[in-house]
Amino acid sequence: MRTKRLLAMVVALLLMGSAACTGGDGGSEDGRITLRFQSLAWQEESVDVNKELVKEWNATHPDVKVEYVQGSWDSVHDQLLTSFEGGEAPDIIHDASDDLADFAYGGYLADLRELLPERLKSDIPQRSWETVTFGDGIYGVPFLQEPRVLIANAKWLRESGVRIPTPERPWSWDEFRAITDELGDGDGKYGVAWPLKEPVSATLNLSLSTGGQLFHRGPDGKVRIRFEAGDQVVPRTIHDQVNTDGSASSSTLGSGGSDTLPGFFGGKYAMVPLGFSYRQQIVQQAPKGFEWQVLPAPAGADGLTQGVSPQTLSVAEDSPHKEEAAAFIDFLLQPRNMVRLALGDWMLPTGTGALRDPALRVEEDGWAVGAGLARYLRSAPAQSVRGYPEWKDKVATPAFQEYYSGAIGLGELRERLVGDGNLVLARYQR
Amino acid sequence: MRTRKSARAGQYLALLAYLVFLAFPFLWLISTAFKPPRELGSLHPTWIPKDPTLANFRQAFDEQPLLDAALNSLTAAVGAAVIAVLIATPMAYVMARHRTRLARAATGWVVVSQAFPFVLVIIPLFLVLKNLRLINSVPGLIMVYVVWALPFALWMLVGYVRAVPTELEEAAAVDGAGRLRTLVSITAPLLAPGIVATALFAFISAWNEFFFALVLLKTPEKQTLPVVLTHFIGAEGVADLGPLAAAAFLATLPSLVVFAVIQKRITGGMLAGAVKS
Q1: What is the mean pLDDT of the segment spanning A188-215?
Q2: What is the dihedral of CA A221, A223, A229, A233, to 10 degrees?
Q3: Please, are residues A99 and A77 in contact by the beta-carbon 8 Å criterion?
Q4: Which of A241, B10, B43, B250 counts the most CB atoms within 10 A of its CB?
Q5: Using one digit for the tens of pLDDT, what is the confidence trace for A50-73?
Q6: pLDDT > 70: what percent of chain A?
Q7: Shortest Cα distance from B14 to chain A (angstroms)?
Q8: What is the DSSP letter of B123?
Q9: Could you write out the DSSP letters of every residue in B226-251?
Q10: pLDDT at B275
Q11: What residue ranges define each of the domains in chain B, with the CATH number in brackets?
Q12: Which of B136, B181, B214, B233 to mutate to test the interface with A (most CBs of A within 10 A)?
């Protein structure tokens, strides 16, 4: 009997507690609008900048309060999906363009075409808007992006006497292969270490430089995969560096970018292809006196063109205050604020106004090289193709991993990417 | 004699290897938590930091609301453990002592329910909790943890109840003890190790749980430690390793402390039961 009474009390307490703990619906409180902004900023400087900007907004907009909510890159997709399904999504959503397709097509995100001011629309170039265009709508504002660059051991390169590439005069892929062969000694020192834990996005994005497209939309609107000459240059170069020349370490093929840094600092690798934002880790972790520099990735028939999936800010379709949310995004992405966000995340802004800022043009830490690459950045291939995530996880990732490790040849790679891949895509395009 | 000695030595060796295997990640975590960034990027990492620092702990506390998150985790874990035990104990007693068709069906359902993956239940669960206005509330999370822990807790406790000889209860009845008196004075003390072990299981599974907390808690001040720890991880799995290790080390401590305190009771109780049988 006592147990029953106790249980009843516990349940009653839980219900009372929940009533006290559950907040409002994100709407108006005493005539004041509250917007929830879920940010994925995670590095100390970046979190600080985001919080400062929210504070500045709140100080100047007494009627529209923005609440900073910390999200995580690690789990954002699942978390957003359940929030959308349950009608509890934040008003302003920080994410990346390659994660938006399902949410945009699913009707969870607001079409921003009518909500954004002309200033913001014209500040960001069309090639960046393409990364967030799904069907006829625009479902996010691309604001930060990072090219893949070569982080190089400056002393090693200087002493070897190789030509140092610049955005104006980059290496070709053939030249890159020859140079890595020259830099490695075949005895524990390698010209390059490819961290290819995620081989698909790295390969596809870099393949834009050689005219690779892989995904082709036909007149019927359906997408099919073809693995043509332009798609093969980058995979073949990496494969040959690892398996033919021995100029690339095979042990890093399954590693993430951070895992290659100890070997880079320890003088095992002359170069590591990494995202531009890895410079922050390098500044923090490099041994004193270690000289490093940022080089552009090699160029192909299409120059330095490279695919990127910019970070984005979107508005939830369910938000009752879309205009206010769009106004906050406009504030956040004023050129001076975009510069602060870019510096905090060690990335490049998409906005042309911000990109002109002298702070992003300095030679120090490779900012100038990165800024020089901004105009070559395009939408990552296939990010708007439905079925791409399944193709990537089930077909392309194991196929590329096996090819790079030398377990299968180019013919088998083609067969799997195209044959198996088109079967996957067909299921999404019936 | 020599064979017995070498067998004993082999056993100790295997035990040592197992302990090293278990301890390695934790020791590495501690080592990483006290290393400055430059040592984290070293090609030849050392077990003992050359230049130990508390900066990672400072940064972890500065960047994320670790104390609030720890308090939320503690509330959720203790709440889930207590409620799960309160519900599971009488249920387990009934299922163990009255082997009816219903009890067998309930046991079968308990086993089947363990097979449901998180992703299958999360959206319906989210909608149910939303209707109950229990989204973004620690009590709502406690309810979920109780429901999630209950099948296994029940299963564990049924085994413990069955291990208590019915003859003891019958002897108490012969001596004139009523049903309640028998349960309180005879059965409950013998079940104590089982109840403690079950509570420990419920506590640790709630303390470490991530996915439900991620989905059900929306505002930063209500998030639990496992969710807050992911804030040290960036895009493509890049991590702020030092602060992450520092925060993860602190997050591991309560589980260890609870286990260290309770462990003696579990083993003590089990030994006591063994002597009686």
Answers
A1: 95
A2: 130
A3: yes
A4: A241
A5: 999 999 999 999 999 999 998 889
A6: 93
A7: 31
A8: H
A9: HHHHGGGB-GGG-B-HHHHHHHHHHH
A10: 43
A11: 1-53 (no CATH), 54-276 (1.10.3720.10)
A12: B214
Q: Which of residues A295 and B111 earns the better pLDDT score?
A: A295
Q: Where in chain A is the domain with CATH 3.40.190.10?
A: 26-139+311-349, 148-307+382-428
The CATH number of A148-307+382-428, from 3.40.190.10, 3.40.640.10, 2.60.40.10, 3.90.550.10, is: 3.40.190.10
Q: Best residue in A21, A46, A264 to probe B by mutation, most B CBs within 10 Å?
A: A21
Q: Does A43 touch chain B (CB under 8 A)?
A: yes
The structure tokens listed for B250 are 């602190």
Q: Tell if the CB–CB gap between A3 and B90 is shorter than 8 Å.
A: yes
Amino acid at A376: Y
Collect all residues of chain B within an 8 Å Cβ-Cβ radius of residue A19: 133
Q: Best of A2, A11, A13, A22 to disrupt the B interface by mutation (most B CBs within 10 Å)? A: A22
The CATH label, of 2.60.40.1840, 3.40.190.10, 2.40.110.10, 3.30.750.24, for the domain at A26-139+311-349 is 3.40.190.10
Q: Does A24 touch chain B (CB under 8 A)?
A: no
Of B59, B130, B238, the CB nearest to A258: B238
Backbone φ and ψ for A111, nearest 5 degrees, come out as -75, 120
B133 neighbourhood in chain A, CB within 8 Å? 18-19, 22
Residue B215 to residue A257, Cβ atoms within 8 A: no
Residue of B nearest to A12 (CA): B139
Q: In the 8-state DSSP scheme, what is residue A376? A: G
Nearest to A42 among B87, B127, B240 (CB): B240
Query: Quick one: pLDDT band at residue B268, thresholds 50, 70, 90?
Result: low
Q: Residue by residue, what is the 3-state secondary structure of A324-378?
A: HHHHHHHHHCCHHHHHHHHHHHCCEECCHHHHCCHHHCCCHHHHHHHHHHHHHEE
CA distance A283 to chain B (A): 9
Residue B234 and residue A43: Cβ atoms within 8 Å?
yes
Residue A271 pLDDT > 90:
yes
CA distance B73 to chain A (A): 15
Alpha-carbon span A307 to A320, nearest angstrom: 34
Distance from CA of B242 to the nearest CA of A (A): 11
Beta bridge partners of A92: A37, A315
CA distance B211 to chain A (A): 9
ipTM, 2 decimals? 0.74
> Which of A10, A86, A286 is nearest residue B130 as measured by Cβ atoms?
A86
CA distance A413 to A235: 10
